[in-house]
Amino acid sequence: MATAGKNLSSFNQEELPSARGMKIGIVAPYFYPWYGGITEHVYYQYKELTRHGHDVKIVTPFDGMNMIDSRDLIKLGTPVPFIANGSITRVPLVARKRKRVRDILDREHFDILHLHQPLFCFLGLAFMRRIREMQRSGLNHPRVVGTFHACGGPTERFLMNTLGSYFHRFRPVFDYKIAVSTASRQFVHRVLPGEYEIIPNGVDVERFRSERSTIPPFDDGILNILFVGRLEPRKGILSLLDSLPHVLNLSRTPFRLLVVGNGLFLDYYRKRTPESVRDKVFFLGSA
User: Fold this and answer.
1) Whether the Cβ atoms of residue 266 and residue 283 lie closer than 8 Å to each other
2) Distance of CA 113 to CAs 24, 107, 135, Å?
3) Are 44 and 170 part of one and the same domain?
4) Which of 189, 206, 223 is the last residue of a domain?
5) How many other C-beta atoms lie within 10 A of the C-beta of residue 37?
6) What's the CA gap between 278 and 254, in Å, rounded?
7) Contact 150, 187 (CB under 8 A)
8) What is the pLDDT of residues 98-113, one digit of tens each?
9) Cα gap 276→223, rounded to integer Å
10) CA distance linking residue 19 with residue 50, whole number of Å
11) Core-most of 57, 161, 168, 219, by most CB within 10 Å?
12) CATH number at residue 257
C-alpha cells in the first residue's frame, strides 16, 4: 500500500492493473432523485470514468432515477429524511450493514474505492471500517480515495468535536484525499491530516448553454429575479420572499420572482409568501 494521504501527482500507474479498464466503486451518500452538489459530482465522475473505459459502480441508498445503467448501481440502504444545518438531508438506514458492505467488497474486487463525504455518512463509515479491518488482516483491498465536501455546518462541527478521535483512526485508510474547497480541507484536516488535492465541483457548460436568449412566457419587459436551489431554510429563500414587499415599496420597476427548485418545504414557502407580492412570485418546480 502507498503512504496514506500522498499527493495525487505522485500516483504510480504501474501499481494498478492498467491506465484503462480499472474497476472503480463510488460510495455516495446522495444520488438521483436527490439533487445537490454531491449528486452532480458523482454523476459526472461516473460519466467521465466510464467514457475513459473504466468499469464503474455507484453504491448509494438512492435508486438513481434511471440516470445511469441499472447494472452499475448498487442500492444499499433506505434514505430517511433528517433535518440538519437548516437543510433536509437523507440518512441511509441499512440492515445487516457490516455483512452487506463486506459482501460488496468481496464480490466486486474494486481496484479503487472512492468515498464521498465519508466521515458524515453511515455508508462511508461502514466502508472505512471494513477497509481498516482488511488492512490490519493483510487482506487485498482497493486503493481508497476520499472526497470531502463539508466545510463546517453546526452538525458537522458537533460531530468533529465529539468524534474527532474516532475519525482520526481512519487516517491510514486513505491513499489519496480530495477536498472540494480550501474551506473543506481546513475543516477536515485536523482529524485527517495530510496532503489534499483541491478539486472544486465542476459545471457542465454544454448542459446549460442555450441558443435562446429569452424564456417565454417571461419575456415581456418585466424584470425577472431568479432563485435556483432546493427549497430549504439554509438556501435563504425565506429572506428573499420577505424582502419583496420592501422592493415593491422602494422601486418603480415592475418585477417578478421566479423560483426554480423543489423540496419538502414547498407548500410552506408558498403560504409564507407575503400577500402583497403573491401575484409576483412563481414557483416553477424542478429544472
Assistant:
1) yes
2) 6, 13, 14
3) yes
4) 206
5) 11
6) 14
7) yes
8) 899 999 999 999 999 9
9) 17
10) 13
11) 57
12) 3.40.50.2000
Query: Do 121 and 241 belong together in one domain?
Result: no
Q: Note if the pTM is more than 0.90.
A: no
Q: Which three cell numbers stand for residue 31?
A: 444520488
Name the β-bridge partners of 74. Answer: 59
Residue 10: exposure state from Cβ atoms within 10 A (0-12, 13-18, ≥19): exposed
Indicate whether 2 belongs to any domain. Answer: no
Residues whose CB falls within 8 Å of the CB of residue 137, separated by 6 or more in sequence, listed in order: none
- 167 and 28 both lie in a single domain: yes
Domain span holding position 256 = 210-285
Which of 175, 206, 237 terminates a domain? The answer is: 206
* Residue pLDDT, tens place only, 118-161: 998 888 999 999 999 999 999 999 999 999 998 877 777 888 88
Find out whether 43 and 51 touch, Cβ atoms under 8 Å. Answer: no
- Are residues 76 and 98 in contact, defined by beta-carbon separation less than 8 angstroms? no
Q: Judge if 125 and 243 occupy the same domain.
A: no
Does 228 lie in the same domain as 175?
Answer: no
Domains identified in the chain, total number: 2
Rounded CA-CA distance 151/198 in Å is 13
- pLDDT per position as a tens digit, 182-222: 999 999 999 999 999 999 988 888 877 777 667 788 999 99
Contact at 8 Å (CB) between 84 and 233?
no
Do both 227 and 186 map to the same domain?
no
